[in-house]
From TrEMBL:
Organism of origin: Hymenobacter daecheongensis DSM 21074
Sequence intervals crossing the membrane: 6-27, 48-69, 75-97
Keywords on record: Membrane, Transmembrane, Transmembrane helix
PH domain residues: 37-179
Entry protein name: PH domain-containing protein
Pfam families (UniProt xref): PH_40
Length: 197
């Protein structure tokens, strides 16, 4: 008896859709030049969420199957708890970081062209005026371990002399070139286990 007769076609359709999206993205990538305008995009979010969502996709159906078998023995309960801890332990922090970064930078646009010395930030289409000389200090916060699902989540916080702080998260783009561009602006590199804002 199959527990989830609809699960296999759903997974096959999801796999086909993802293959088409990645194929189109790869083909269009050959014909477009590198952008200098960065905002939260579907492709960037999929890149950051791929492993956490895969972990949930594999672990949650397994966990759900325990609830269809009726009462659980103590061995099954321990196994269920261990699997739930692993699935949520790996995927949970990444999903929490993604939600926090999404709320912070949903309406943020970054314009970055290091060869022309351009770094501009817009919130909801309105520019936030500042120059490199206005930067009091720059926090560059990265994950302490490069092997965790949430290790790609990092952020830059630009502290301006007038007291404002501008936060740029990994949801916009890979921030390492931006951090390199700002390395002479009183950079404060920090490492955390999980880069919550």
């Amino acid at each position: 008896m199959k527990l989830f007769p609809f699960l296999r076609p759903l997974l096959e359709i999801s796999g086909a859709v993802l293959a088409v999206i990645f194929g189109l993205r790869l083909i269009t990538g050959f014909f477009t030049k590198a952008s200098r305008v960065y905002r939260p995009t579907f492709g960037r979010q999929l890149y950051l969420l791929f492993w956490p969502l895969l972990c949930l996709g594999v672990g949650l159906p397994f966990l759900a199957s325990f609830f269809f078998f009726g009462p659980l023995s103590s061995y099954e309960l321990v196994l269920l708890t261990a699997v739930a801890a692993v699935v949520l332990g790996f995927a949970g922090p990444a999903l929490a970081l993604h939600a926090q970064y999404y709320v912070r930078n949903l309406h943020t646009t970054l314009v970055f062209e290091p060869k022309q010395n351009i770094l501009e930030v817009y919130e909801s289409g309105v520019p936030i005026p500042f120059a490199k000389s206005d930067l009091q200090r720059v926090e560059w916060v990265t994950c302490a371990s490069p092997r965790l699902f949430w290790s790609n989540y990092n952020f830059l916080r630009l502290h301006l002399r007038d007291g404002r702080a501008i936060t740029l998260t990994a949801l916009l783009t890979n921030l390492e070139p931006v951090a390199g561009f700002l390395r002479n602006s009183n950079m404060e590199p920090r490492q955390r286990w999980c880069c919550f804002l």
